[in-house]
Amino acid sequence: MNATARSVRTKANDIADYMRKRGQRARAAARVIACAETGTKNAALFALAEAIVDERDAILEANAQDMREARNNKLDDALVERLELNPKRIAAMADGVRQVASLPDPVGEISNMKMRPSGIQVGQMRVPLGVVGIIYESRPNVTADAAALCLKSGNAAILRGGSEALRANLAIARCLDRALVGAGLPKDAVQILDITDRRAVTEMVAMPEYVDVIIPRGGKGLVSAVSEAARVPVIKHLDGICHVYVEATADLDKAIAVCVNAKTQRYGTCNTMETLLVDAAIAERLLPQLAKTYSEAGVELRGCERTRKLLPDAKAATEEDWRTEYLAPILAVRIVDGIDAAIDHIETYGSHHTDSIVTENFTLARRFLREVDSSSVMVNASTRFADGYEYGLGAEVGISTDKFHARGPVGLEGLTSLKWVVMGDGSVR
Amino acid sequence: MNATARSVRTKANDIADYMRKRGQRARAAARVIACAETGTKNAALFALAEAIVDERDAILEANAQDMREARNNKLDDALVERLELNPKRIAAMADGVRQVASLPDPVGEISNMKMRPSGIQVGQMRVPLGVVGIIYESRPNVTADAAALCLKSGNAAILRGGSEALRANLAIARCLDRALVGAGLPKDAVQILDITDRRAVTEMVAMPEYVDVIIPRGGKGLVSAVSEAARVPVIKHLDGICHVYVEATADLDKAIAVCVNAKTQRYGTCNTMETLLVDAAIAERLLPQLAKTYSEAGVELRGCERTRKLLPDAKAATEEDWRTEYLAPILAVRIVDGIDAAIDHIETYGSHHTDSIVTENFTLARRFLREVDSSSVMVNASTRFADGYEYGLGAEVGISTDKFHARGPVGLEGLTSLKWVVMGDGSVR
């Protein structure tokens, strides 16, 4: 082994040691935070919001340095844009934390305590998962958001933001420390990593003794890399290939409102419609009118053959289009015959994220809700509603496209699970 | 590459192909079974119970051949014992299937439909996980049990039993086919693998496109091997190092009843007490009396130093004893000072399976339930109650020692998750 190889190896060991120590501290803090009273957790959250407001200038200064370095490093504009903080965004960050404080505490809730013939009484108690690892990119507001959600749900957290946002994240970390210590909670309950080496992530996702779940928040590359390396459960968010199916009996006005909103309200979000399915029976009435609105909004249409007979200006859609998450002002359009064909299309090409039917028919609405296997299924509503705030979760720590544990927006409840509680009176089998 | 290597390689490809085809068929059947009506699923289950009774002689004959081969192969006695079927066990198998039929259908239940300020109404629907892979050893009754639970919860299943039970499993498979086809459900909804090559398992746990969750049922070796190779979520059952803590205010009669039952009712089960923690304030009154009963039952005691002052016949417990799942008539005993020391011991040495406190103190009972991070926490009840039947789940497909998704006994509900349901009236953001 030459000197360089040796030094690299030592460094890898150092990182492993460092991460394991972080993990041990998180595990110890998790026991305390899991049993912390609701009032104590809320006090820490309100103190965090206050500290963020107090430290606004320091956070902005740190962010300005991050931005300068990002520009010097020629990071792409979209990333730099996501990085930027301003007084309004900082106020929103503090507001978000206060909102989490005002949510009901999910931890400790006991449900379904039933008497059993044996004499015992059995039910379930909602409890934290333990230690949550969150790996994210750029946006520094995720730091405050994620910390607040983990704290409120009684979990310890290890947060690993992008290296491009390190200074702002560490400024927020100082607010967190102050808030935790002020409320009498262990500082280690939320740890923000100051190590930017990628191997820290590889370590972190492979310590089941210390980390109970990993949530990657970022692009597909990040999510796949984390999932590949993970030795602990991962709450994954992969593609959002969302559909709206306008059924034959749809109300035309509702259909247009939903279709326009689902595509044009924002283009880059995972709950944006990417493919529109139109029932043949309503296509002639709907599509020309809809195409006009899309054209005004600058949305490019890619249609199946039948669509292009009605909309000669639309490009021809290929098989690939049905599988594409554009995240852009492009929409694939397909004419289908009936609900079975629509559901078949969604199950074949969709990503099980969010799908909506527009219909006035009760039975078909019920069928769609039941048969479409997506994390959110909707009737007469825009796919854009698939979001923690809109669902009343307060905030979301991510959106799961998995079927295991939690589906769709993951809020406080998604960061908990249920243990069994048994009460007896000296009961034996 | 020489000829042998080539042939082995071809064989591995064959197995991969074979398993992927099985997976595709399961995925297709999952769509059908997920939406099957409750009455249809129940009809299939009652038909399965009937077929098992009808085919009793054929199943017994297949089992007799399995047993002969197992003995010829010098498999160990415990394994051969678990393999054995008899008319009583077959009747119990059919009864188990009928019990699952009589449980409420968890699928399709909609809960918490709340109105949101935006005008949408949001709630959750319970849905199957999709395709469940179950890998188990010897006991052929698991085949009927697991098939029934997956079917009722709307999941497709791929069952892979031990090669030693192949003939009996295939005889049960024929009953299943008859029942499914008779009810108009796809045969592929429950597939029982007839391939005994271990590589089939390695394939099966690494097909996230076709399998949504893997449940290994068997010894630690099986569970670890499956977890290591898995690329899909695994519902794991690892150690059951269960504790009873007899607190100072405990009622002596209840304490004795619980301690004796938790240890001696059965030795080889995961919910058997392995370590007894006794509060110093009650040790003198409890331990000598308890030791007598244990001694009569043939239970060997291994005590801490303080225990051995009260029970001079007890062996000395080592650090290793606190971490051991004996699955045998051996019990570790430790005297502790107060609930904090008891909880510390449980959190340090326990396996987060099942732990019980015996106490008359309300506040300490509440603390124990809240602070002990185990899948089942109990007050004044024997740890032996930690079981799907006892909890009213009807049957269990396994016991999870994980914190993610499901903890403790996993019944029908553990084989489902919740998707979001949104209803609007042309609602947009």
Automatic annotation (TrEMBL), chains A, B:
Residues 32-297 form the Aldehyde dehydrogenase domain. It is found in: Cytoplasm. CDD domains: ALDH_F18-19_ProA-GPR. One of its GO terms (biological process) is L-proline biosynthetic process. Pathway: Amino-acid biosynthesis; L-proline biosynthesis; L-glutamate 5-semialdehyde from L-glutamate: step 2/2. InterPro entries: Ald_DH/histidinol_DH, Ald_DH_C, Ald_DH_N, Aldehyde_DH_dom, G-glutamylP_reductase_CS, Glu-5-SA_DH, GPR_dom. It comes from the Bacteria. Belongs to the gamma-glutamyl phosphate reductase family. Pfam families: Aldedh. SUPFAM superfamilies: ALDH-like. It catalyses: L-glutamate 5-semialdehyde + phosphate + NADP(+) = L-glutamyl 5-phosphate + NADPH + H(+). One of its GO terms (cellular component) is cytoplasm. Its EC number is 1.2.1.41. This is Gamma-glutamyl phosphate reductase. The gene is proA. It comes from Solimonas marina. One of its GO terms (molecular function) is glutamate-5-semialdehyde dehydrogenase activity. PROSITE patterns: PROA.
